[in-house]
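U., I forgot to send this yesterday:
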Amino acid sequence: MRMGDHIVPQHEIEVIAGAKAAALARAAVARLGLSQLEERMDAVRLSISEVVTNAVRHGGLRQDIDPVRIIVGAGPDTVRITVEQATAANVKVVQPRRWGEDPGGFGMHLVDQSADDWGYDPGPPGRVWIEFGTPSS
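Result:
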């Protein structure tokens, strides 16, 4: 991964699609100990949970078989976390929601509010990336 003019070291994590995938992904990213994310770890955990959960629930992945890859790259001003699934990523545009409406559908709205930036490549493989600025940025 390249960010600006810097080659960014990558960490790759793989979890298997299933009920525990989001929790395993959150824990694995936290274990990386990236000091750039220390102050924003709650937002990072929330965003990872939402994106991995979307991949598992809506990505057409086979439960307990198909992998979800999480790629973490850290630059001097930004940390980018990419969640990749073998199937296409069909991300809905974030729309304002009201509590009490049809349950669900708040995930990407939460990501939009928690991360500094995000986007997706429909693929396949489908990728959703989330970015967090570091305290020095």
